[in-house]
Amino acid sequence: MKNIPQIREISTLSFNERVLQEAEDTRNPLMERLKFLGIFSSNMDEFFKVRVASVQRRIEMGKKAMVQVLTKIMEKARNLDDRFQDAYAAIMAELEAQGVRLIDEHELDRETPQVRQWVDEYFREEVLPSLVPIILRDGFPMPQLTDGALYFGIQMRGSAVPYALLEIPADQPRFVQLPNGCIMYLDDVIRHALHEVFYVFDYDRIDAFEFKISRDAELDIDNDFSEGYVRKMEKVLRQRKGGRPTRFVHDEDMPAGLLQRLIKELKLGQADTTISGGRYHNMRDLMRFPAKRPDLSFEEQWPNDHPVLDAHRGRMMDVIRRRDILVTYPYQSFDHVVRLLREAAIDPEVREICMTLYRVASRSQVVNALANAARNGKKVFVSVELQARFDEQHNIRISERLGEVGVTVVYGVPPLKVHSKLLLIRRGDELFAGLSTGNFNEATGGLYVDSTLLTADKRLTTDVAQVFDFFQQTAAARALAPPKFKHLLVSPFNTRKVLYKNIAAEKAKGALGRIFIKVNHLTDSQMIRRIREAADAGVKVDLIIRTTYAMLPHKNIRAISILDRYLEHQRVYVFGEGDEARVFMSSADLMERNLDWRVEVAFPVYDAELKREVVEVMELQTRDDTKARILDRKQSNKYANDRQATCRAQYDSHAYYAKRFADAELSRARLLRLA
Fold it and tell me: How many structural domains is the chain composed of?
């Protein structure tokens, strides 16, 4: 198979390698490197549940070429796991040198009696009540094991019953802080006290070896929604728990007899991926490592004041009525979006609020504001996407909560997934809209780079209203009269057509043409073909692709990926240069699913000042020579500059927004002096 690095699954692994590079990068503080290990572990869990499961399904359908892909996946995954273990060992050694000491059950035996007694009491009071040992006996089937949960395979040497299972409680903190300042894995606290769990057995020695399984996370949802979408979703979520294993990860020191017993009981076949790893698994918990050391973390970086919204603390809709506002977080504060919702919820003149929700925070201020608006007598309409992978159950609970206070809740337009991020406020006869590149989520608003355009421009608000009208139509009405949009690019209706038209316009300019695209994923074959044809004609193309990238190198195409302290999440399309540039921001990546099988929205930036702002920040990113990696044919993840770094885009972007506020304040001061 040609061009394997450009295959989506291999490209995704290449992205995960970039995350691992951040853990290996000694320029990053130690605690941040540890967090990147946690992010890497979490990403790999999802990768095996989703992407590897997809490959296995295609193999079962007879696509023999995917066997080579699966082989390559396993080869690269094992290599990454080896690097992970090396990075983990190095970081832990450096942390210990800095006074952050992680000990295991053997080292605990060398601590003072008072510390050992404290651990014993902690185990009996906090951990033991949650433990449910499962004895493995011949002739009795092993119960179904939970996807992603941690288990101990227990071996009792010299016992008539040699094997057992013990689930490590997921509702307990993974790390335990001891009175002497040391930290222990919960796993090792349990290892230390195994005798208190299995005391009824006679054995010469007892050992615990950690393992976990990842299961196929794909939801098989047919198009018969007669039983109700929520009920159907709950049904398939239960089915997911019993999905086929896609990865079995175990302690490399697990005895062969116990390992073979588990493989037999789990019915793992040749296509299942069995990986021997370190002593600990579910390392995503490293993102919550308890040591609080500001000196070993990124320096605090607060959101900058917004040059318009923070200069005017009155009613936001009065400001938005006069001009478009762009909020880019975390360089500016996501709180402005929450503030607008809270304002709308209590404004007597606001009659209606419409919103799409895809992923929201666990204690969402956005959801609270919508519920408050309904309690205040507003008409509130919310489209909640139940197919937001791994957030399905959370979104069901949100839907129920909103429904209880009188919010009209719909579940998108099945079978299309609603991925667009839209807000519409109807105040009297006026419309106000919020169009975003990312989720309305205050938690990720401090971690992901996204932008929200707040506008009263009738060209945009009229189209946004039409999107919400589409959501509220019956399936028959949607089929009879598909919506038409004049200004927004809305998938699956006109996004391809408008993007093709803009690419063609730049292609016609030849060497004078310019295309800039920033997305998470660029894999759509037709879009790639048109971009390459434009490059063939001499158009200069700059691409910033965060995750998956399926394009081969071209002399006129420069492709980079930026990974730093924040997750790049904006989608931006720029065609042309200078004042004539056409600038769009979007929730949509350039994948077939986003263009043809989801409801996505790209919105034009019409305001000249905001257009310059978007382009200037994107140009900062193209100049990054600190955290940018070149996306070459092999996706080898070489840094853009191995020498002295001069531009670190995320830090320079933060400084850019600080300067925008400072310049605005200076301009206002000058106007006051003139007055």
Answer: 4
Contact indicator for 395, 388 with CB cutoff of 8 Å: yes
282: left (phi over 0), alpha (psi -120 to 50) or beta: left
- Both 71 and 203 in one domain: the answer is no
Ramachandran category for residue 524: left, alpha or beta (phi over 0 → left; psi -120 to 50 → alpha)? beta
Question: Residue 117 belongs to a domain with what CATH number?
Answer: 3.30.1840.10
Q: Does one domain contain both 180 and 275?
A: yes
Residues 422 and 503 placed together within one structural domain of the fold: no
645-650 long-range contacts (CB < 8 A, ≥24 apart) are: 647/620, 647/623, 648/564, 648/624, 649/562, 649/564, 649/620, 649/621, 649/623, 649/624, 650/449, 650/562, 650/564, 650/565, 650/566
Q: What is the mean pLDDT of residues 75-99?
A: 94
- Candidates 250, 306, 419, 654; catalytic one: 419
Q: Point out the domain boundary residue: 85, 100, 115.
A: 100
pTM of the model: 0.90
Q: Give me the DSSP letters along 71-125.
A: HHHHHHHHHHHHHHHHHHHHHHHHHHHTT--EE-HHHHTTS-HHHHHHHHHHIII
**Which residue range forms the structural domain that includes residue 504?**
489-674
Asked whether residue 298 is assigned to any structural domain, the reply reads: no
Instruction: Measure CA of the first residue to CA of the last residue in the chain; give whole Å.
Output: 72
What is the tens place of the pLDDT at every residue in 143-190? 888 888 899 999 999 998 899 999 999 999 999 999 999 999 999 999
Highest mean pLDDT among 248-262, 284-298, 601-615: 601-615
Residue 654 bears catalytic tag: no
